[in-house]
Amino acid sequence: MTFHGFAIALSTLVGTIVGAGIFALPYVTAQSGVLITLSYFVILGGAVLLLHLMFGEVCLRTSGRHRLVGYAGRYLGLAGKLPVVFSTLFGLVGALLAYTIIGGSFLSIFTGISPFWASILFWAALSFFVIKGIQFISRAELFMNIALLGIFVLILVAALPHVDLSRFESFHASRLFVPFGVVLFALTGWSAIPEVADLFKRDAERRSLDNLLVWASIITVSLYAVFSLVVVGVTGSATSQDALSSLSPILGDGVARLGAAFGLIAVAASFLVLGNYLKNSLRYDFKLSVPLALSLTLLLPLALFLFGLREFIPVLSSVGIVLGAIEGSAIVVLFWRARKKGDRKPEYQLHLSPKVGYALILLLLLGAIGSLIYA
User: Fold this and answer.
1) Angle at 270 between CA 253 and CA 178, to 5 degrees
2) Per residue in 39-51, pLDDT tens?
3) Which end of the chain is less packed: N or C, by CB atoms within 10 Å?
4) First to last CA, the chain
5) Measuring CA to CA, which residue among 56, 20, 21 is closest to residue 37?
6) Which CATH superfamily is domain 3-374 in?
7) How far apart are CA 274 and CA 42, in angstroms?
């Protein structure tokens, strides 16, 4: 596979994962403590990487174009498909809603218009690109992520001189489950894996999918850890839910506007791929027409926003919990079923014990239950 093709695929995947979640991570780090959140990065980072690799193998073992719902229907039957249908619709619509909320906030900082109308404008602009499709999106995201990395570095350079280690609080046992839903949401990128696989036209290209997934995880976890530590080191317990608002009084309005641009790029990239994923899932798995699939994909988040669901952190955490508990568990089961019933030889194969799958499901379910009890 050419470096250019790998870069496009990697940018698509990283652009999906690094979305709105990154801006909630400093807040939960400040609330629960640095040690707890870093532990989540390590544990959930490893768990999600395994799930990504498992789902990648499922995609490679199955001929035809499917999304998670389609794979569940094929390998798990109706009883296994229904929870995944609920999770897919709830998770993707919820994620698009969260992106609309936070994208509007950043656009408001950048332009000065009200957050409400900024969210409407953000939704309208991104909806146009979802209509254009994955090939257009993947090329646009390569440039988006180059700009994203540049702005990210500039923010870090401006913030580093203001970092004070005394602002790090290491551990709050009473808030152990605060980061779970947000961190899981921030790490999850399996919705983009079928989209990325569609970009690979030859078997030789598909053999690099596992390396792509590993590099995407390394990049995203590293970015999250650095960003969270730097922001909390600057703002401490005063860290805001969107991270950037609390930086403004210390670093100045110019950095806040630069951060808003960073936020817009990151959130826009994820909105594009998730919107395209939901559209294609409705097309291929639910057999809906293109106009109807597009209408549901784009109008449902807008309707929820207009009806008053505009709280960023609760939406984000709820989506993360549902995605982890239902879809994560489903991917583990799909992995073993596809090994028995898949109709093609995959370009890579994992060598895992069934105990690893049981441990992943237990981790996700216990985390979801603990988060709900805490909430």
Assistant:
1) 75
2) 999 999 999 999 9
3) C
4) 46
5) 21
6) Amino acid/polyamine transporter I (1.20.1740.10)
7) 25
